[in-house]
């Protein structure tokens, strides 16, 4: 027997793995990353850079560049996300108006821009100018009458169908991942799951283009959720330019968390709300350093959007409001009622939408995505056109519902009966009796509300980009405005009632219906997404209504309590579970008294655990084991008799290591011994060269004993982001628990189908 280390030229052969080789440390598609391993690799990289920086000026400069690369990436993400959001806003304005008419002086102008440039516009008819012509005026020279109405109606439907068909076709052909909101998948990716291509360049391009098309088509969806996906695509693209992020999946996710904040920042003009949204709703791992960088990315994105000025009002906020009266304590009751409505609407929406999406996945309906989009678009356009509140874009609708009725407002909602003797300043108009315009607007809003509630259930989840923030806010704003007008009229006609007597005297401006719309919007958005802190901050940044934080907080909290009474899941978590993604939610509680031995594999009656031994298996044995199983990795033990645990080897790295050894080194053949120890085993003379694979061995795999409570195991998986942990007793290997096993066990304990967890 001779020591293999004495063989001629074998030293460099056995240790060739001490140098890194391509693709080690990367993960396969639809698999979970190992957070601890990524953290450890980043620490090693940082230590190496720090020690090298003392060797020369050049190495010191390189270490500074490495330290600043994170801020550079944030700057680039903010600039690109802000630019794309500005372009999307401008394009949506133009294409939405294109369904109704065209600007003759410059066809690329929207209706508003066209009449801005006109010298023949009066204040009363500021939406009418000779440069802007409806399609009926352009084609048959008629602006009024039945034939003009029918022609405009027909062309409105045709444009909507054209935009929707183009969008769904682009998504199907070029980027299937560009559909949906993107937030459920972003949450899953940030928790450590790999979905290759989901944040790719094609997805970025197609999602940006199709987002403009679908929002312009008039479908009941928003662009805010997809803008988070677009910003994360920007983050992924810029991460790939810096090796610090491209080679470390854990570091890449820090960038994506900040990108999500930039996405919300440009979607709502709410940089602080964006950071809080990323922290509360999207991110899984959010260290303090990421908080600062998220803040910087959101700042740059908001600044870029403000420079583009897509709304033309020199404001960053989408629905700027200026109310002239404070709110009163007695109004908390209707605000809380709106919170209850928001919670009930959220529960109804989630249950109905998930049932419809499940039906789409499990029946023939899912085979015809283009037909589904065309049918829903046609129904939406046909029903939406006759009602002025559903015909216009949802953002414009919300803006009108939030507005206070000033003396210069021409909206139907402001058609009050004025006192001819009124001599008050313009800003302080007292409560007045509702005129015929307000009553007809109430009927139209009630019909629009029912339509929005129903159609949004079927629209969200189709194979097109679709956000949920704006439709949810529209539902709440319509309900809120109607409640606000009701309270206002009650206060006017019954100001002697005890609840109004103290704060609402005759001739005073007591109730602001626009505020009720704002509170209702927050309540419905909270009911669907279960956001609280970030929601309130987004709402006051969105509207500029800083003094109305308490009503917003009351509605958001009530909405969450009511919705949580029917089920803890928000819409994004529900879609994650529907798709079977391995997402271990930090908010979920596990209170069952089971043990690790109840969950670990192998269970009784199953084949023994597939393991590698430290120095007694050949290359052929390892390759056969890999071929016959589909496990992600294998525990390494001293021997099959002792089963003393040494470490854990990943499947992918074993395959790459053996493949590289066969290509780069002579003497590695099928019956070469594979060893994971520091020193080679003693082998007979004339044995083929052994293969040392110690470098790919994880010598400190996470282990628990078989009697560890599952409550503790779930907590460990959640907080450390583990892929798997090994179960031992007195150092002997008993089994393995993977993230998939944990999720299936949790589903089983919650009386759900454990087979719904499909990925590793």
TrEMBL record:
State the protein's name.
Answer: Chloride channel protein
Q: Which InterPro entries match?
A: CBS_dom, CBS_dom_sf, Cl-channel_core, Cl_channel-4, ClC
Gene Ontology molecular function = antiporter activity; ATP binding; voltage-gated chloride channel activity
| Pfam family of the protein (one) | Voltage_CLC
Q: Which PANTHER family match?
A: CHLORIDE CHANNEL PROTEIN, H(+)_CL(-) EXCHANGE TRANSPORTER 4
| Bilayer topology annotation | Multi-pass membrane protein
Q: Which domain of life is it from?
A: Eukaryota
């Amino acid at each position: 027997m001779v020591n293999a280390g004495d063989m001629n030229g074998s030293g460099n052969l056995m240790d060739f793995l001490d140098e890194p080789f391509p693709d080690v440390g990367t993960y396969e598609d639809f698999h979970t990353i190992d957070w601890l391993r990524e953290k450890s690799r980043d620490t090693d990289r940082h230590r190496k850079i720090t020690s090298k920086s003392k060797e020369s000026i050049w190495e010191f400069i390189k270490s500074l560049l490495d330290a600043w690369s994170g801020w550079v990436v944030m700057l680039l993400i903010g600039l690109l996300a802000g630019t794309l959001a500005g372009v999307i806003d401008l394009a949506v304005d133009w294409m939405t108006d294109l369904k109704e008419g065209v600007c003759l002086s410059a066809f690329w102008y929207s209706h508003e821009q066209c009449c801005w440039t006109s010298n023949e516009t009066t204040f009363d008819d500021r939406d009418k100018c000779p440069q802007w012509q409806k399609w009926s005026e352009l084609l048959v020279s008629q602006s009024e009458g039945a034939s003009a109405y029918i022609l405009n109606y027909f062309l409105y439907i045709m444009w909507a169908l054209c935009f929707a068909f183009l969008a769904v076709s682009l998504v199907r052909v070029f980027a299937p991942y560009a559909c949906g909101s993107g937030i459920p998948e972003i949450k899953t990716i940030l928790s450590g799951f790999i979905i290759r291509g989901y944040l790719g360049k094609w997805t970025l391009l197609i999602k940006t283009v199709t987002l403009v098309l679908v929002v312009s088509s008039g479908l009941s969806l928003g662009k805010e959720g997809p803008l988070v996906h677009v910003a994360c695509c920007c983050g992924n693209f810029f991460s790939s330019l810096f090796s610090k992020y491209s080679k470390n999946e854990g570091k890449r996710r820090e960038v994506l968390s900040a990108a999500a904040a930039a996405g919300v920042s440009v979607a709502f003009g709410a940089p602080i709300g964006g950071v809080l949204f990323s922290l509360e709703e999207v991110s899984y791992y959010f260290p303090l350093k990421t908080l600062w960088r998220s803040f910087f990315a959101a700042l740059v994105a908001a600044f870029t959007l403000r420079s583009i000025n897509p709304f033309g009002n020199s404001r960053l906020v989408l629905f700027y409001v200026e109310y002239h009266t404070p709110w009163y304590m007695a109004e908390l009751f209707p605000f809380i009622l709106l919170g209850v409505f928001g919670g009930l609407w959220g529960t109804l929406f989630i249950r109905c939408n998930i049932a419809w999406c499940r039906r789409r996945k499990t029946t023939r309906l899912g085979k015809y995505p283009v037909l589904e989009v065309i049918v829903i678009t046609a129904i939406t356009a046909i029903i939406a056109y006759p009602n002025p509140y559903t015909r216009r874009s949802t953002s414009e609708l919300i803006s009108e519902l939030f507005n206070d009725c000033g003396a210069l407002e021409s909206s139907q909602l402001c058609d009050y009966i004025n006192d001819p003797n009124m001599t008050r300043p313009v800003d302080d108009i007292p409560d007045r009796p509702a005129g015929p315009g307000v009553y007809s607007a109430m009927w139209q809003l009630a019909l629009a509300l029912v339509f929005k509630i129903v159609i949004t259930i079927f629209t969200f989840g189709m194979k097109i980009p679709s956000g949920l923030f704006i439709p949810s806010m529209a539902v709440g704003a319509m309900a809120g405005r109607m409640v606000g007008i009701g309270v206002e009229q009650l206060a006017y006609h019954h100001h002697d009632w005890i609840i109004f007597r103290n704060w609402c005297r005759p001739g005073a401006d007591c109730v602001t219906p626009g505020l009720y719309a704002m509170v209702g919007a927050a309540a419905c958005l909270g009911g669907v997404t279960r956001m609280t802190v970030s929601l309130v901050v987004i709402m006051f940044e969105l509207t500029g209504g800083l003094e109305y934080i308490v009503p917003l907080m009351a509605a958001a909290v009530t909405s969450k309590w009511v919705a949580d009474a029917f089920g803890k899941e928000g819409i994004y978590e529900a879609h994650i579970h529907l798709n079977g993604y391995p997402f271990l939610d930090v908010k979920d509680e596990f209170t069952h008294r089971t043990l690790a031995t109840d969950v670990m594999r192998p269970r009784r009656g199953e084949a023994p655990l597939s393991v590698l031994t430290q120095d007694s298996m050949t290359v052929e044995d390892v390759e056969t084991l890999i071929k016959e199983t589909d496990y992600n990795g294998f525990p390494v033990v001293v021997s099959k008799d002792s089963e003393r645990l040494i470490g854990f080897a990943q499947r992918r790295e074993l395959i790459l290591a053996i493949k590289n050894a066969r290509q780069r080194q002579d003497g590695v053949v099928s019956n070469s011994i594979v060893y994971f120890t520091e020193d080679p085993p003693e082998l007979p003379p004339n044995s083929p060269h052994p293969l040392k694979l110690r470098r790919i061995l994880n010598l400190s795999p996470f282990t628990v004993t078989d009697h560890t409570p599952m409550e503790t195991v779930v907590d460990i998986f959640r907080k450390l982001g583990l892929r798997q942990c090994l179960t031992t007793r007195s150092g002997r290997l008993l089994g393995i628990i993977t993230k998939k096993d944990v999720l299936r066990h949790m589903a089983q304990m919650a009386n759900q189908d454990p087979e719904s967890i499909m990925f590793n």
